[in-house]
């Protein structure tokens, strides 16, 4: 079975036989899969009335466990956005009734962001929807293949995670 990457690699091998284009065979597929996954995720989130960034913030709070709250700084660390962007996001989620700001009892100048019941329900529903979409994508592989792929991808990702990027 031939895919678009096979055709791309064959064309480069014909046009530039002096280059080793083997990395394209793996990484172009990863890139293409990432685009398809991004579309599936956007669809899953839209089905629950969320934007991807809203899902990221709500699920960061949900993963924190009861009482489902974090400081804005902790949210910055988990979502990799700037302070100004996070402030805007918290404002928008507050307007939607999905989070509330509370005074930080340990820091008179600080605040905590907490999921509302509606925010927790929205996060839970969107996560279940996302997992259903992602299971469909992975259904093409046997369970052992999924485990092997996860292990191989982990080996590629760990150096980037350790470097902070």
Automatic annotation (TrEMBL):
<dbReference type="InterPro" id="IPR036388">
    <property type="entry name" value="WH-like_DNA-bd_sf"/>
</dbReference>
<dbReference type="InterPro" id="IPR039422">
    <property type="entry name" value="MarR/SlyA-like"/>
</dbReference>
<dbReference type="GO" id="GO:0003700">
    <property type="term" value="F:DNA-binding transcription factor activity"/>
</dbReference>
<dbReference type="InterPro" id="IPR000835">
    <property type="entry name" value="HTH_MarR-typ"/>
</dbReference>
<dbReference type="Pfam" id="PF12802">
    <property type="entry name" value="MarR_2"/>
</dbReference>
<feature type="domain" description="HTH marR-type">
    <location>
        <begin position="23"/>
        <end position="158"/>
    </location>
</feature>
<dbReference type="InterPro" id="IPR036390">
    <property type="entry name" value="WH_DNA-bd_sf"/>
</dbReference>
<dbReference type="GO" id="GO:0006950">
    <property type="term" value="P:response to stress"/>
</dbReference>
<protein>
    <submittedName>
        <fullName>MarR family transcriptional regulator</fullName>
    </submittedName>
</protein>
């Amino acid at each position: 079975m031939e895919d678009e990457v096979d055709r791309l690699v064959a064309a480069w091998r014909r046009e530039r036989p002096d280059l080793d284009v083997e990395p394209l065979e793996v990484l172009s597929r990863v890139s293409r899969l990432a685009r398809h996954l991004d579309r599936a995720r956007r669809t899953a989130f839209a089905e629950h009335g969320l934007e991807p960034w809203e899902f990221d913030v709500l699920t960061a709070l949900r993963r924190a466990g009861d009482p489902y709250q974090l400081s804005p700084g902790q949210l910055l660390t988990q979502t990799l956005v700037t302070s100004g962007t996070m402030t805007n996001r918290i404002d928008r989620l507050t307007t939607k009734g999905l989070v509330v700001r509370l005074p930080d009892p340990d820091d008179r100048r600080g605040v905590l962001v907490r999921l509302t019941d509606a925010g927790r329900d929205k996060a839970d529903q969107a996560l279940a929807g996302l997992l259903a979409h992602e299971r469909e994508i992975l259904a093409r592989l046997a369970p052992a293949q999924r485990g092997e792929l996860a292990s191989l991808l982990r080996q590629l990702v760990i150096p980037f995670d350790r470097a902070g990027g």
